[in-house]
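Risk register update: the risk of archive-format incompatibility is retired. Evidence:
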Amino acid sequence: QVQLVESGGGLVQAGGSLRLSCTASASTFSSNFMAWFRQAPGKDREYVAAIRWSNANTYYADSVKGRFTISRDNAKPTVYLQMNRLKPEDTAVYYCAATSWYRGSYDRTSDYSYWGQGTQVTVSS
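Archived output:
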């Protein structure tokens, strides 16, 4: 029912910027949280950032704090991830996630029931 469509990935030099977008589509959709996760080859999927829809409060993993910004657009609905000062270690497939309910956490893959297909971000040195 709910589909998340991501875009904006690509190849960028270290120190550069990219903006990822994720749009949700459904006949009826409401989300307590939307988030971004990433997964590099051979590694577990890791939390990047989350946004609480009701108040737009944002939350970040320590590894991206100060460099990445998550934001929302209520009209579509869409969530963005602005990535600045990118590093080679940011290279990964980035996944958008959403949950329509909150059980007390927002930074685990198990917190989310809807996932996008992923978009590749490659940062060269």
